[in-house]
Each structure stands twice: as C-alpha cells, then as structure tokens.
Amino acid sequence: MKKLAFILALAGMFFGCSKNTEVSTNESITRETETATEVQNETSTVVQNSTGVETKTEEPWIALIEKEVTEISFKNGEYTIIPTDKEDYFEIYTELENGLRFYAILMQKNFEDDPRALSEPERFQKYAKVVLSASTLPQYLQKERGIFETNGYKFKRTIKVTEFARDIVFFRLSYYTTTPMYMLRCTFSRDADEFKEEAPQYFDENGGWKLEMPSGEPGYIEFAQKMVDGTIESKTARELYKICEDFMKTIEIKTVE
Fold this sequence. Notes:
- The protein is an alpha+beta fold and about 260 residues long.
- The protein has one domain.
- Helix content is about 25%, strand content about 30%.
- The protein has helices at about 1-15, 120-135, 140-145, 195-200, 220-230, 235-250, and strands at about 35-50, 55-65, 70-75, 80, 90-95, 100-110, 145-150, 155-160, 170-180, 180-190, 250-255.
- β3 (about 70-75) and β4 (about 80) form a beta hairpin.
- The longest helix has 15 residues, at about 120-135.
- Keywords: Signal.
- It comes from Treponema pedis.
C-alpha cells in the first residue's frame, strides 16, 4: 500500500517534465566536476575505444551532500525523514499555509519500483552538474541558474506555472539535491488561478498565457522569472514563493560522522 501511495503521489504532483515550461535557465556546464564526491554509479555512457569498438564506461555519481544523511527535518523537527536500510524511499506529505502542498521524498538512486523513477538519477545528476558549475560564478548568475543554498547545503531549484496547455495555471517550486546513496526532492505546489486576476498582463483575452511578452519571452517564463527576483506583480505569487523559501531555510540535515 505504501508503494501504491507513493506512485499515486508522484502521478498527482510531478506529472510531466516538459522542458519548455520549466524555469531552470541556462544549464551549460563551464567546468569539470572533479571536485564532487564521486561514488560509483550504475549509469553508464557508451564510448568508442581506439579500435572503434563501443564500450560502456561508468560515470561517477555526483553527491552534492558529501556524507550520507542519517536524518532530514524541517521546522525544528516537526517534519522528519530518517532513512533505514529496510526501504528504498522515504517521504513527507503535508499541507502548509495558503493552501500549499508540500511533498518531500528521499529516494535511493537505484530505486526501480516505479517506471517514472527510472529517469530520476539522470535528471538529478544533470541538476547536480548545474549546481557545481554555478558555484564558481558570480552571485547574480547563481541566482539566475536557480541555485538555492541553506545551512551549507546546495539545491537545484526549478519553478513551473503551467504545463500541457496555456490556460493551465498552477504554482510548483521544487528543490533537488543528492547524497552518495540518495536523491532528495522537495516540492511545493497548488492551483493558482489568482495569478490571472492579480497579473492579467501575462494572459491573453482567452485566459491563456501570452505567447510573447514585450520582452520576447512567453508570459509564463517572464512571470516565473519575476517571481524569483521579487518583482512579480501578483501578491499571491510573492506570498507563495516566500513561504517556500522560508520553509526550505528550516531544513536540517544530519550526516554520518
């Protein structure tokens, strides 16, 4: 039953991964990742040797949190995850203020019970590389790339306000990080029809996101970018973003000695 609940939760809160609606900005990598903690990973890359024969080489696993976690908590221990070797994943699901739903999952990097989880290691590693690259950049570029850091721990942050159709409006803010054994994702979400009322300039006469703003960006992209830099006109958007950031700042992560 627990695994069924996990699958339903994934389907309900994280359906789809369309790249054109996710604000994670430029993710080109500007340096090598040799400074990361390297733990052997099951994923592999096909390369050609000197004779032209294709072989598979295993890539090192990038752990943004270098030591293995023993406990993750929020709000002074009000919400806690304590991993054990008896389960492949551990989760928190709760409702916060202003109708926000919060879902956190700590999943083993080789978790295979659900087909949707099979691409997760690749996605988490892509995000981990972005975090490592941004760590050498000026602060304004780090912010633009969606890097969140608290208590010494770094996360890749993504924000989405639409998916599948231009008239769909919601709020979803996610934070990703990795450990030697696990992938941690924390997501806040809720419907957000208030955006249309409070910031109508981003929507067309039919209630859908504008295809192009004066800046040249689609309405949903500019809206999300302004939410991050604090200039968005929507009061609800500002409040939701602040709740998420403040909540994530309460995270405490204990690791092995």
